[in-house]
Amino acid sequence: MLRLIKKKKKIDLDALIADSVKGLQQVTEEHRTRWKLGQEKAWSVDEDRGIISFTFANSVVVCAPAQVIGTYHVSDKTFTWGWKHPNVLPNLQQHAHRVREFGVEYGSEELTTQQVPCTEKRAWEFTALAMLLAEASGAYCLQTAADTFVFLTFGEVSYKRAMRA
């Protein structure tokens, strides 16, 4: 009896990640030019609605749908994927799940292991890959504690004026 063995597809993950990082750098520069990403005076995330908001000194607020890719812990140099993160709501895990599905399809242990040792640079690379796979508009990193960073992807941005108190 002939048995068919399903082989995992081959891909040059490092090359794909390098391309993803270039794409992230390009769109980040576009966001910096168009709406001054990185110059915001405050940010906030409405986890229930899945929206990130950036508030600027001129009272402009830029909002976009957001997804959590994972968290990076500086002290132990680990990245915890958002696809099954205990502190990430299910509605914010979709883009992280796309990376995991990709990792399963191509046999990548680092994309399918809940917590992986890595550098902050690698956390950005994971986020760039998520941006590519999910066709997101950009990525952002939030510092939520002294040694914890949350890596996000975001969708198309919209603009509004902040309400005056």
Describe this structure in words.
This protein is α+β, with helices and mostly antiparallel strands and 165 residues long. It has one domain. The chain contains four helices and eight strands; from the N terminus they run αββββααβαβββ. The protein has helices spanning 13-35, 94-106, 109-112, 120-134, and strands spanning 42-46, 51-55, 60-73, 78-81, 115-117, 138-145, 148-154, 158-161. Strands 1, 2, 3, 4, 5, 6, 7 and 8 form an eight-stranded antiparallel sheet that branches. A hairpin with a 4-residue loop joins strand 3 (60-73) and strand 4. Helix 2 (94-106) crosses helix 4 (120-134). The radius of gyration is 17 Å and the shape is globular. It starts with 12 loop residues before the first helix and ends with a strand. 29% of the residues are buried.
Q: How are the SSEs ordered, and which strands pair?
A:
Elements: H1 13-35, E1 42-46, E2 51-55, E3 60-73, E4 78-81, H2 94-106, H3 109-112, E5 115-117, H4 120-134, E6 138-145, E7 148-154, E8 158-161
Antiparallel strand pairs: 1-2, 2-3, 3-4, 3-7, 3-8, 4-5, 6-7
Helix pairs in contact: 1-4, 2-4
Strand-pairing-aware structural class: alpha+beta
Radius of gyration: 17 Å
As a percent range, the share of strand residues is: 25-35%
Approximate helicity band: 25-40%
* Overall mean confidence score, pLDDT: 93
By DSSP, the count of extended strands is 8
Question: How many helices in DSSP terms?
Answer: 4
Query: How is the biggest beta sheet arranged?
Result: 8 strands, antiparallel
Shape: globular
